[in-house]
Amino acid sequence: MAGGLIADDYRRLLFSLLPPGMIWPTDPESTLQRLLDGQAQEFARIDARSLELLAEADPRQAIYLFEEWESSYGLPSRCAPADQSLADRRVALIGRIVGQGGMRAQDYIELADGLGYPGAEVLEFREATVEVDTPTGYTGAVIGDDLNGSDWDWTWRVMLPSGVVRESVIDESEIGDPLRSWGNDLVECALNEAAPSWLILQIGYLEE
What we know:
The protein is an alpha+beta fold and about 210 residues long. It has six helices and seven strands; from the N terminus they run αααααββββββαβ. The protein has helices spanning about 5-15, 30-55, 65-70, 85-100, 105-115, 185-195, and strands at about 120-125, 135, 135-140, 155-160, 165, 180, 200-205. Strands 1-4-7 form a three-stranded mixed beta sheet, covered by helices on one side. A two-stranded antiparallel sheet has the order 2-3. A two-stranded antiparallel sheet has the order 5-6. β2 (about 135) and β3 form a beta hairpin. The radius of gyration is 29 Å and the shape is rod-shaped. The mean pLDDT is about 80.
């Protein structure tokens, strides 16, 4: 991350703290300037590390504090084991942060999006009945409707995009991580884990 002071900046600052006088050499190769430069290197290193720490506040960029982020959100878990690649673990973390499931279909769309499945859809169903017209309109099934039982009033089907491939990215992967990973076990497990006990959650896949 750019924007911090470099060693030469700190060397000049250290030199400015010396008592004024012509006795102090300004030649970069002089013993004094080399001594100040050695001290400045450490200040520059700390400066750079402090800027890196700012990036750690964003879980999408965190490296050094990534495990602390995971722990804060209950990860690793059954749906996101620790032996996954760092890219998959990061996807699981972002999914856990942006969506926890809930009562709305939109909650599951947002959760799927956070897990790397943008464009998910949720289908809701209802029991097939034979009611006639009511003051609020026709409520019964019509020809062509599925003959659903009463359980279908509590059933949602999350339709996910198919063929999702996660690729390793420089600075976001660890040595040993695969260059590509795929499979839907992670998102299916996370969606089912987020679903309340009353909801019958089905998972399907959209055609490419």
